[in-house]
Every structure is written in structure tokens, then in C-alpha cells.
């Protein structure tokens, strides 16, 4: 079973029984997109400037199969970075907390062709995170027929 579906069902009901794949896939396809929320902890190599964070997130988005449109990044004082890479399929955003050796990202995509897990693995390897917390949410329930 795809991991994003396990995450989705575990969020809905902590005591769930796994349905068979025929029951799952039609439900997962009824969403507008997939939204990954990932926290990286005990990072050994956080980016320390806007350009480094931008390069890392752009490469991650491209590795996942996304089409990069543009980006916007900000460096906080005395430290910390935030930025977003706008992709044709939605966005990949990243935020760093060097004082906590932590980084958080969110990757939203409306395309089933995007593999966010590739981007997540790339970022984890780049920041050398000792621990991650990952959640995936199917966004925009489409239980009704479109207009």
C-alpha cells in the first residue's frame, strides 16, 4: 500500500483496519492534492543563507518531478530562513531554526506524477537530519461530482 495512503488513514482513525487497495485508491483520487508536512530534527547541515536554501529546495522539487515556476526567500536576523518554491503543481516551502537544529517543509501537489518522498529524502540527506516526522494529508475532498 502506498505510504501516503497509510498516513492519510492513520490521521483519520488511530484504530483503523487496513482496507484493501480497491477500496483505497478511489477515495485517494477524490482529493484535490497531496500535502506533505515534514519536520527534520537534529540537523547537522542546515543551509545558512537564502541562496543555499533556495538551491536545495529547487533541486528537491525537480528531483520529485515538479516544474519550478519561481521562488521567494527571506533571511531572518539573527538567524533562520523561510522560503517557497512555486511549482506548476503547487508549492514546496521550507523554514529553518538553526538554534534548534531544525527545519520544517511542506510540499503540496495536485499532480499524481509528483513523488514528494524523493524530495523529502533528498532534503533529509542534505541537512543530515537524525530524525524526521512526516505526515501526509489528502486535501480537498471531492465526494461530489464537479459542476
The radius of gyration computed from the alpha-carbon positions, rounded to a whole number of angstroms, is: 16 Å
Distance between the termini: 32 Å
- Distinct helical segment count: 4
- Sheet-strand content, in percent, reads 25-35%
Unreliable parts: 1-28
| DSSP strand count | 6
Largest sheet: 6 strands, antiparallel
State the share of residues found in helices, binned by percent.
Answer: 25-40%
Briefly note the structural class of the backbone: alpha+beta
Mean pLDDT: 84
The neighbouring-strand order within the major sheet is: 2-3-4-5-1-6
Based on CA inertia axes, which overall geometry fits? globular
* Order of helical and strand elements: HHEHEEEEHE
Brief sketch in words of this structure:
By secondary structure, the protein is of the alpha+beta class. 30% of the residues lie in helices and 33% in strands.
Salient structural properties:
single chain, disordered N terminus, 147 residues, 4 helices, six-stranded antiparallel beta sheet, alpha+beta
Description of the molecule:
- With 147 residues, the protein is of the alpha+beta class.
- It has helices at residues 3-12, 21-28, 50-63, 116-127; strands at 33-41, 68-75, 81-87, 90-97, 102-109, 131-139.
- It has a six-stranded antiparallel sheet with strand order 2-3-4-5-1-6.
- The longest helix is centred in the middle third of the chain and has 14 residues, at 50-63.
- The radius of gyration is 16 Å and the shape is globular.
- 28% of the residues are buried.
Amino acid at each position: 500500500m502506498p505510504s501516503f495512503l497509510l498516513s492519510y488513514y492513520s490521521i483519520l482513525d488511530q484504530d483503523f483496519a487496513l482496507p484493501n487497495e480497491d477500496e483505497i485508491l478511489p477515495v485517494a483520487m477524490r482529493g484535490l492534492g497531496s500535502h506533505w508536512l515534514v519536520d527534520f530534527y537534529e540537523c547537522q547541515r542546515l543551509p545558512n543563507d537564502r541562496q543555499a536554501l533556495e538551491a536545495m529546495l529547487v533541486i528537491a522539487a525537480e528531483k520529485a518531478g515538479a516544474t519550478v515556476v519561481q521562488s521567494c526567500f527571506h533571511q531572518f536576523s539573527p538567524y533562520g530562513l523561510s522560503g517557497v518554491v512555486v511549482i506548476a503543481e503547487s508549492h514546496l516551502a521550507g523554514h529553518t531554526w538553526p538554534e534548534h537544529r531544525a527545519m520544517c517543509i511542506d510540499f503540496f501537489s495536485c499532480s499524481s506524477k509528483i513523488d514528494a518522498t524523493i524530495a523529502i529524502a533528498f532534503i533529509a540527506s542534505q541537512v543530515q537530519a537524525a530524525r524526521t516526522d512526516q505526515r501526509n494529508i489528502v486535501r480537498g475532498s471531492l465526494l461530489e461530482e464537479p459542476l
